[in-house]
Amino acid sequence: MNAESLLQQAQLVCQQKGARFTKVREQVFLLLANHHGAVGAYDLLAELKELEAAAKPATIYRALDFLSKQGFVHKIESINAFIMCHHFGECNHPVQLLICDQCGHVEEIQSNNFDLALRTMAETNGFTISHQIVEAHGSCKNCTNV
Amino acid sequence: MNAESLLQQAQLVCQQKGARFTKVREQVFLLLANHHGAVGAYDLLAELKELEAAAKPATIYRALDFLSKQGFVHKIESINAFIMCHHFGECNHPVQLLICDQCGHVEEIQSNNFDLALRTMAETNGFTISHQIVEAHGSCKNCTNV
DNA sequence: TGTCTTTTTGCTATTATATAACAATAAATT
DNA sequence: AATTTATTGTTATATAATAGCAAAAAGACA
Fold first, then answer.
1. Chain C nucleotides covered by protein, CB below 7 Å
2. Scanning A111, A119, B5, B136, which has the fewest C-beta atoms within 10 Å of its C-beta?
3. Residue at A90 is within a domain
């Protein structure tokens, strides 16, 4: 899915929800959409500065915060980076990430079974999950076969 | 399990592996063992400074690095904190953490099934896992019933 | 034991990541 | 138009983690 059509989809979602998809937010969205892998907030800031010289850390973090809340973007906790979600229109299931430590590629998968397994296991412990982080590091298909 | 017996167990493991369980490392180990929940590196540093006034960030991070490598301690990526592992003697399976956002309690569980499920799912995508991070946030038994 | 090598520590500085606080502006509401 | 609410600009600061290099300690070995 290319950046433009992702943007259109996001605009639609925002319209439906009454969320304000402002200029900065769109700019950051597009920067992320044009990245193949994950990006750090400060790398993103450097890119944004080419469009908006006055951008500051808060600018980026606020935009990322908004985009995360809409489900357009995921934060990868184990590497402090952010990545565009390519399925935000379809559903809002928790996500599992496969992070290749060789090439940096991040694959996003969504398994309802897996989600359920974790949720059930938590409930056995009397625990109610509000948000789950599943990040597997290792070697992707390409990098394993090299 | 109390701090002293955990320490003894850790000493044994180090002896067997030929790892050097130095003074600083033991001090940090004990500080962690006496904590009920997770602790940030700088909080830990503040505590360590009461014993070793000259301690610096690197002191703590090196100790934590060592303790993690031995499997004595887990880093919680989503809150940048560290927690003593109470099962390091038994096995070295990947771990799932239940983190209560109300009271800060962290429950460590080890499900082989879960590990296997994730591993299998990854393999379906041609991905080989070397390290996995599973952190569920939510509300623990006590906090849910309040 | 004395020498060499490796590991660990001490220390200073710096890098990286993220948020607080408050005024200014823009948009939505009435 | 006036008021309220959400967003942005700006400065400063908090929080987390590592780099680099010299000194010291421990282990290896003739």
1. 7-13, 16-21, 27-28
2. B5
3. no
